[in-house]
């Protein structure tokens, strides 16, 4: 049965980051994602996660400028040195937090040179960190304008060209629906290389509804295909996080 992680960058934001782990554990989550854990010392985060009994499932590699800027640069020609330095940083943090996955973002770029840059950077990263699990996540252009990685065909090509056992896909249902409009067909295409799944309500990206389309279909497909990874809840709560958590028990009923 897939386990459910709270994305602590988007959930429990009523609380300081270090208090979010305990709140997520009390609410019934079994793990945590943090998009950018670079503002708080790793040992402090690791202690808070351990005290709450929550493994950290996913972090993102550092963005050059999270506050309004591009959120990554693995596909940006000319920034390869910066990519390597920052990847080393994400590795140190991932090791301190024992994060299961590192999500590497492509950043704003276009064209064949960007594709080659992404392949080269990710191939280097996968070889540099054979024990780390790396993911790439196609993002809808509406959410991330200008991002290089906005379709699953390109993601599959990149993963296939590199052929590293520690590189795979992060399927975020919000992006998958925005990009393809057909979550079931998208899952069929990418299931074999998917290492991590994220869910949210559709189309508003608020609380997920496990018993209604499109999430009900995705959950059925995950169970049918024997998906053994985590499901991360990455959404914007309608009111407080706690007030909207009724979906969590209902989801367990569906995937049990
Ligand atoms: O879907 C998203 O926005 C995230 O998973 C992410 O990593 C981009 O910041
Ligand atoms: Mg996501």
Automatic annotation (TrEMBL):
Keywords (A to Z) from UniProt: Isomerase, Pyruvate
UniProt keyword annotation of Isomerase present: yes
GO terms for biological process, alphabetical: glyoxylate metabolic process
Domain Xylose isomerase-like TIM barrel as annotated: residue spans: 21-250
Active site annotation, chain numbering: 137 (proton donor/acceptor), 234 (proton donor/acceptor)
GO MF annotation, one: hydroxypyruvate isomerase activity
InterPro entries: HyI-like, Sugar_Epim/Isomerase, Xyl_isomerase-like_sf, Xyl_isomerase-like_TIM-brl
PANTHER family: HYDROXYPYRUVATE ISOMERASE-RELATED (PTHR43489:SF6), ISOMERASE (PTHR43489)
Family: Belongs to the hyi family.
Name of the protein: Hydroxypyruvate isomerase
Species of the source: Paracoccus aestuarii
Upper taxonomic lineage: Bacteria, Pseudomonadati, Pseudomonadota, Alphaproteobacteria, Rhodobacterales
């Amino acid at each position: 049965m897939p386990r459910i992680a709270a994305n602590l960058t988007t959930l429990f934001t009523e609380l300081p980051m270090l208090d979010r782990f305990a709140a997520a554990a009390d609410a019934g989550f079994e793990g945590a994602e943090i998009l950018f854990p670079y503002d708080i010392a790793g040992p402090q985060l690791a202690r808070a996660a351990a005290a709450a009994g929550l493994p950290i499932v996913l972090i993102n590699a550092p963005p050059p400028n999270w506050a309004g800027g591009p959120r990554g640069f693995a596909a940006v020609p000319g920034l390869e040195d910066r990519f390597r330095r920052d990847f080393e940083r994400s590795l140190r943090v991932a090791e301190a937090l024992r994060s299961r996955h590192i999500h590497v973002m492509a950043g704003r770029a276009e064209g064949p040179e960007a594709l080659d840059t992404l392949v080269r950077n990710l191939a280097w990263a996968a070889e540099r960190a054979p024990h780390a699990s790396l993911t790439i996540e196609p993002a809808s252009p509406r959410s991330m304008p200008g991002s290089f990685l906005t379709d699953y065909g390109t993601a599959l090509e990149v993963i296939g060209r590199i052929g590293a056992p520690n590189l795979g896909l992060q399927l975020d249902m919000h992006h998958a629906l925005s990009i393809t409009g057909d979550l079931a067909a998208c899952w069929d295409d990418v299931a074999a290389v998917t290492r991590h799944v994220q869910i949210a309500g559709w189309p508003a990206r608020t609380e997920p509804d496990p018993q209604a389309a499109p999430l009900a279909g995705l959950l059925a497909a995950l169970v049918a295909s024997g998906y053994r990874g985590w499901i991360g809840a990455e959404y914007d709560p309608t009111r407080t996080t706690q007030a909207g958590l009724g979906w969590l028990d209902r989801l367990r009923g569906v995937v049990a």
